[in-house]
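Protocol step 4 of 6: structure prediction from sequence.
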Amino acid sequence: SRSAPKQQSFGGVWPLPFAHGPSCRAAPAPMVDQATAKYLGDNIGGVLAKALGEMAIAQPRDGVDFLSKWLKLHVEQEEARTLREQEEAKLVEERAKAQDKATEKASRVAKKEDEAQRKENLYNNLLEKFKDPETMFEDPLWSELLSVASTLTGAKAAYLGLVDEEGLEDAPGPLIRYTEALPGSEMMKDKVLPQGAGVTWGAVTENPDQEVMHLWRPPMPEPTEPVGDDGEAPLPPTIPYLPVSVECVTDVKEMHYFELTRLGSYLAVPLVFSSYYTPEAYAECKKFEEEKKAESQKREEILQAYEAAVEDARAQGGDDAVEAVERPAELDHVDDKEMTLPGKVVKMVLCMDTLGTNAPIDEACFERALELAKACGQCKQHTEQKWLDAQALAEINDEDRVKLDEEIEAAKTRAEEETAEAMGNDEAEVPAEEELARDVVGKKWAFMRAARVLLDLKDVFLNLKTWVVPSPEMVNLVAATALFFGFKKVQLYPKRKQTIDWQVLLQVLDAGFLKTIAEFDPVAPRKGLEPEQFLVAVKAMKGPAQEYSPALELLHSVLDTALEYRTAYLQLRKANYEMQKQTEGEEFNLPPLEEDDDDFEGLA
């Protein structure tokens, strides 16, 4: 085969294209790849096509110059368009931000207005409730008062103090002890403020002089009444108790702190009212209702006599004779007396603070807080008068007393009939000569019957919870019963007090109290007793027998028969113990009875 001829080189360089002169045809340009073509099409294809289209129409002499100027103008227009779009977008964004701010501001204003309206509604609703004559004050209203007062003033903490003249077992009076507190301030219920300590005492000082510091005095209204004949203007109304206000507690050295000092404001609003839960007020109330009842009965008798005289006159002389019968003046005039009761002044103080927040309490709300506290005290006062009157009316209601006596007698009869067979069986098992044992059986069934009657008439008994002024004997009877049937002293006495309080005692008078009696075994061993629970202590607290109301007599019968049953049983055990000890002599080795049952101590 023949080899290809070698191409001659000139100076070691291969011949370039067009080496044979312009008459030779140019070699075709190499094709670009698809990615490059796409890039050119996306970035300049459309612009060049448009430019070339316009150049084709214009057919300028210098196409290159036309194309460069067109492209320059195009760039400037695009930049202007982009700038305009950016400005328009920025304007839209700024308008949106302004709209968002306006919406947010409107939302804050609406929220603030809603919150203000909510506070106003809370205040007005509670104020109207206190002023409503039909409202009966109950303990949950104390918490509602604290909540509304805290909302009104913006206070972080709110608590209610009570002036206690007697004091506590570990703190002599007078002092202020705190009875209610909002969540977060509960520790105040364990605190006391001794007399003279702090600034709060100024709020419960009647008609304070200028020496009482940090008092807030409301602005006095302009006199509107005309000047009297003596030429002197009437005196402005006086407020006997004024709030105490401290804008910054750390600026007042007299402030008393129960924990670490913190920045903030303090407000103490007086809440003073007359309490009628006293024996003196009840005696006056009962006397008033008895006199009112006697006058009503007297008018009824006069009316009956007058109507009888009219009938007699009509029977004898007709209508003309009736006109001659004189109508008694008592029938035309009814003297509606108003009941006036002696009250015991109760001084309380509504305390609020912003300690820890360093926020002020707006002075604009002081007068409204004072009005709310005053309305609360009046509501409590009126409620006590209503409950006192209801107790007096119930006690002098002879008709209801007769019905109740009949109910009790019927319940006793049922109890005797229902237990007669079981009692007979128990008695039959005890020889006749064992008098002590037979006595125990008799007393056992006396207690069982008394308990059955009480449980049968539980609604009658629990009606005692409506009593607001019990006699000391009544309080002692209920407390003695509770102690004997297993309740602890802490459940019956006010905290840190040595005197029984009826309102505290009422808390155990419920269905659980009756269930305890129903399940109680009076002769079961009693160990670990508190001093007040011993048999001899309970008997001493119960006191001698006396006349009780029918409802209370139900409880007295249960306690009395239970004590007699237990006493007889312990005496029987003691007699048997002594007899065994005497019989066995030196061989007797049983432990003392006191080790088995605390009630053997002091047993006669």
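Step 5 (inspection) to follow. The chain has a mean pLDDT of 89.
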